[in-house]
Write a structure and sequence with these properties.
Layout lengths: L3 H11 L3 H10 L4 H10 L2 E2 H7 L5 H13 L3 E6 L5 E6 L1 H4 L2 H14 L13
Antiparallel strand pairs: 1-3, 2-3
Length: about 120
């Protein structure tokens, strides 16, 4: 029979890391990664951001930007105008994601199938 210490260790090893849980709770939502990726290039106005991400609705973009702002990854700046315009840019914390997201992009290019159906290394 296993002692209490062994059972405790097995349970700890089977739990998902809390940091990864928090990361994917935010970045795992549809559109969020794409929004951050666009903002990695430069600050953009709301309409530009919407055009850069085909298929996203204004409501969804607004919701995701609100979440990213609340998480401290995006800064919302109001340009007094006229006309009144709102722009968004990554904070220092948001810019800290760049190397990880670029690495994920490289990984996807190597291992995730494209529209052709299979990863590059398996093509003849």
């Amino acid at each position: 029979m296993a002692d209490q210490g062994e059972c405790q260790g097995a349970r700890e090893c089977s739990e998902v890391d809390i940091g990864m849980t928090r990361v994917f709770a935010l970045l795992g939502k549809r559109w969020t990664g794409l929004i951050v990726t666009v903002l990695m290039q430069r600050a953009v106005h709301f309409a530009e951001l919407r055009r850069a991400i085909p298929g996203i609705s204004e409501r969804m973009l607004s919701d995701r930007l609100t979440e990213l702002t609340a998480a401290g990854l995006v800064l919302r700046e109001v340009d007094a105008g006229p006309p009144l315009r709102v722009s968004y840019r990554l904070t220092e914390a948001g810019r800290g994601l760049e190397s990880s997201l670029r690495e994920l992009g490289r990984w996807a290019g190597k291992y995730l199938p494209d529209a052709g159906g299979c990863p590059k290394e398996f093509r003849k």
